[in-house]
Amino acid sequence: MTHILITGASGRLGGAAVRSLLTLHPAEEVHALVRTRAGADRLRRIGVDARLADYADAAGLTEAFRGIDRLLFVSSPVPDPDERMRQHRVVLASATSLEHVVYTSVHGADHDPAHAATEAALRERGGATILRNGFYTEPFVTAAIEQARSGWITSATASRPLATASIADLAEAAARVVADPPDEELWELRGPAWTYGQLATTLSGLLGRPVEHRDVSVADAGPFGPLHAAAAAGMLAHETDDLLRLLGREPRGVGAVAASVAEDIDGHL
Question: Which domains does the chain have, with CATH numbers?
Fold first, then answer.
């Protein structure tokens, strides 16, 4: 028996990873870490053993990791890198006896102090797999669908491509890795690159009305401004085949993600 625990299981990535792992591994050996009783109750209703602790709770984590062989460590969402690193140190200190740790890092982790330090600690530890997740496709698409009501979408990408990845694909890849850890330690996970012009064409078909793409300044791109600037500089264009290799199929492109997001939005109207 190999008992696997997934942290951050009430979040979008962690929750999707739990659902994927249930299709790959015996349910009685799947465990989840959450911070709230409500989150734990939701998981228990689908037959998952849910354990309560947060990343700052050393005693709680030690107890939660009892009887666990492998850990899918979903990185902390805390924006402050110093606080994130403090939380990650607590998790890693509590996980020293585990057979294997799979860590969800980020694209460009070398330039993020918390992720870089966590990756270095895992390399020193051994028995680890690092998944550098690309930026999620869904937030870009969701914002564009909302904006498309006006007949256009905007970006400051200078029509350069973005190699992002869907949350569902990243979660499935993480579940596959923790269920059967590969020999390779580092994976760069990105899906097919796309442009805002292509997204506008896709949304025209999905929404049944013309949608145009318009270039704007970084300042006018709102919260996506920094990422758009990175895309315009060519920093988000690089595709890899790592996600395809882990999934055993082509990752979802922006069209498939847009169709799923549009359906979900329609279902909530």
Answer: 1-133 (3.40.50.720), 135-166+191-238+250-269 (3.90.25.10)
